[in-house]
Amino acid sequence: MFWNKPIETMKREELERLQLERLRATVRRVYQNVPLYRMRMQEKGLVPEDIKTLQDVQKLPFTQKTDLRDEYPYGLFAAPREEIVRVHASSGTTGKPVVAGYTQADLQIWAEVVARCLGCADVDYRDTVQVAYGYGLFTGGLGLHDGAQRVGAQVVPISSGNTQRQLMLMEDLGSTVLACTPSYALMIGESLRDSGFDLTRLKLRKGVFGAEPWTEGMRDQIEGLLGIQALDIYGLTETMGPGVAMECLEGRNGLHVWEDHFLIEILDPESGAPLPDGETGELVISTISKEGMPLLRYRTHDLTSILPEPCACGRTHRRIRRLRGRTDDMLIIRGVNVFPSQVEAAIMGIEGIAPRYLLVVDRVNNLDTLEVQVELMPNLPFDEVRQIERLEGQVRRAVEQVLNLSVRLRLVEPGSIERSEGKSRRVLDKRTLFN
Ligand code: DLL
């Protein structure tokens, strides 16, 4: 189902013409209004008129999260205070948050792109959308809220948390769509299972899950527990919030990026050199329609690749592969690169194992160690230590095979790994605690 078919299926040449026009306007806007951009462009000897083709984006300076921190809170805003009608922020782990500002026009575009995402999931005015992303400075709640309202759905702005209440309202209000993080969807699903809830009492049919990396295995688990189709939505505060990209029902193996608003590049994370389609690298986004806080060549640190093949759904906006993690989530353990999502992919589907895990990294005698904690399913019919040991061996081999690294594996009691109503924490890196 399309929310905006003419735009979503626009011919590539037309789309690229529109992108160029908008890129040029954005460059002019930030050159005039944002001292940091003007200075960085001047350092490179660039003026806005030098941007003549889409490839010229590569001449422009990068923007990094540190720039947002250094210019906190308003330094990168390109509109006067009177035109900014909303701010959001992402907390991060240290120091000041990253602040994003929106004009009225920005909020309209945000609702439009989220509406398109919901269209990808076949959601429309007949649906009741339970928004269980957090409301507040986090962009998940209000982002999905405005998009769902735009398509004319009935919105249940419940925010995250209080799982029993989520279940009660889901049943009583007949919610057909759940929007939250995949971790929270799993928690809601487990809660249903543990209380022996009869799924036929629910009308739920679709899930719109994102804000953190998740795997196919996790999708299977969630779909099974909730009896729905689960789709992936991507975005980040800096460039707007949720709604940069979304899976469609046909593809389910890549997320359409709304390229009339976001210009994407995939670069080698170290050298910054462009990578060909299909190769995994860092996603770099230029916003080309934002007024409040446009960003040129923002280094997302998210790793993905471009899937250049046309999608069966008819949308012409290119897809990116499901995000596997962030360059800064990547652990280097005894020289080997490790992503938490690799562990997730390895353990999913092993019988008796819950989709809950934690990587504990430490350094003992100058050598990195990795302990992988994995939770057991509740009520396992195990009465012998030997059965547990056998399972432990099976899980360890599966993990070691994907990581190519020896690990210490610990099966832990059901419920012992911290649950999250928002984004999950998958790594405890004790090596960094002393730095
Ligand atoms: O997480 C925005 C969002 C809200 C997206 C609701 C989707 C749904 P931030 O808190 O700024 O914004 O975090 C952005 O989260 O750079 C990725 O590393 C990660 N992320 C977001 N969506 C996905 C996804 C919101 N679908 C950061 N898959 C991004 C993997 C994701 N990682």
CATH class call of the largest domain: Alpha Beta
Q: What is the number of independent domains?
A: 2
Q: What overall form do the CA principal axes indicate?
A: globular
Kindly report the name of the CATH homologous superfamily of the largest domain. Answer: ANL, N-terminal domain
The strands making up the biggest β-sheet line up spatially as 4-3-5-6-7-8-9-14-13
Q: Approximately how much helix is present in the residues?
A: 25-40%
Q: Which ligands does the model contain, each kind named once?
A: 5'-O-[hydroxy(phenylacetyl)phosphoryl]adenosine
Question: Span between N and C termini?
Answer: 51 Å
**Category from helices, strands and their pairing:** alpha/beta
Mean of residue pLDDT values: 95
Structure description:
This protein is an alpha/beta fold and 435 residues long. The protein has two domains: 1-324, ANL, N-terminal domain (Rossmann fold, 3-Layer(aba) Sandwich); 331-434, GMP Synthetase, Chain A, domain 3. It is 30% helix and 25% strand. The protein has eleven helices and 21 strands. Strands 4-3-5-6-7-8-9-14-13 form a nine-stranded mixed sheet. Strands 10-11-12-15 form a four-stranded antiparallel sheet. β5 (177-180), α8 and β6 form a beta-alpha-beta unit. The longest helix is centred in the first third of the chain and has 22 residues, at 12-33. The chain is globular, with a radius of gyration of 22 Å. The chain binds 5'-O-[hydroxy(phenylacetyl)phosphoryl]adenosine (DLL).
